[in-house]
Amino acid sequence: MARKHLTPKRHLGRELNESTVDVAKRLAQVVSQAETKHKTSVEGMFEASVAEEMAATFGAEILFEENREGPITSLAIILIPDENRQNRRVAALAATFGFVAHLSKRRKIAVAAPQGYVTDFASIPGFAQWMISPFGKHSEAAVVHDWLYTLGTKGDKKGRKLADVTFRRALKLVGVGFFRRNIMYWAVRVGGGSGYGLESDYDFRDLERLKPRDPLPDRKSFAVTWREAEIPKPVKRKKGLAPERSPASVQPPLSEADAKAKAQDAMVATKAR
Q1: Is 133 among the domain residues?
Q2: Cα(87)–Cα(46) distance, integer angstroms
Q3: How far is CA 252 from each of CA 227, 262, 263, rounded to the nearest angstrom?
Q4: Residue 267 falls within a domain, yes or no?
Q5: 3-state secondary structure the chain
Q6: Using CA atoms, how far apart are residues 16 and 77, in angstroms rounded to an integer?
């Protein structure tokens, strides 16, 4: 399967390109501003809905403008020593992680899991970890799924299904095979209901000492970290019509002096023949 959106194996261990670094910086700034503006709005100095709409628009557009699917930034994690959940290692995100998935021909979703968020990767029961490890090729997809589940509200069937469908698409994008990704998808569809919207999963760490943040950031400020959007339909040209030229391809008109010089050069070239 072609995986053009991923870093080729021959490049692993090398420096990230400037585009990836730039997106990561802009994304982190937007998420940080969203949290700050929401906190300010609670104190009555800024309207919360305006702050959230701004962050949702700009944060998602940073990811969408890359015009591709899959991980848009790198998944950077810090493993938390001597801590696990049901035999699974846990880690804090060292930087905001951005991911885009096309859920259908007309729908796409952008997700930005914020810095400091604690994930336990894929929620694989202990008895099944011999077949599918909690951490592996599917880790980026698992972090996206974890974050959408963390933001969920108990009993929201529509939100939970969206998270699961995003997970299935994300698994395909990171190269998990058909058989395995469908096992993982149906595992969360059948047995993941109790884990959707759990208060205990809303966990953030101070990255210097890896201690739980106290107080935790307001959950509402992170409602802006994912957004669905429509995929625009491709523009169809009528038969027989010449394609429109982009503004960059249109040459500016020549000045009178340039026109005379060009004509003179053409005459010299003709005589030389």
Answers
A1: yes
A2: 43
A3: 41, 15, 17
A4: no
A5: CCCCCCCCHHHCCCCCCHHHHHHHHHHHHHHHHHHHHHHHHHCCCCCHHHHHHHHHHHHHHHHHCCCCCEECCCCCEEEEEEEEECCEEEEEECCCEEEEEECCCCEEEEEEECCCEEECCCCCCHHHCCCCCCCCCCHHHHHHHHHHHHHCCCCCHHHHHHHHHHHHHHHHHCCCCHHHHHHHHHHHHHHCHHHCCCHHHCCEECCCCCCECCCCCCHHHHHHHEEEEECCCCCCCCCCCCCCCCHHHCCCCCCHHHHHHHHHHHHHHHHHC
A6: 16
CB 165 within 8 A of CB 145: no
36 occurs within a structural domain: yes
What is the amino acid identity at position 127? F
Beta-carbon neighbour count of residue 32 at 10 Å?
14
Q: Considering all CA atoms of the chain, what is the largest pairwise distance in Å, rounded to the nearest integer? A: 87
Alpha carbons 251 and 232: distance in angstroms, whole number: 29
Mean pLDDT for the chain overall: 75
Q: Is residue 154 part of a domain?
A: yes
Question: pLDDT tens across 44-55, in order?
Answer: 544 444 444 544
Lowest mean pLDDT among 10-19, 129-138, 166-175: 10-19
CA distances to 54, 112, 203, 242 from 109, rounded to whole Å, are 17, 10, 23, 34
Domain span holding position 186: 16-230
Number of domains in the chain: 1
In tens, the pLDDT along 207-245 reads: 888 999 988 888 877 777 888 888 887 777 666 565 555
pLDDT band at 11; cut points 50, 70, 90 = very low
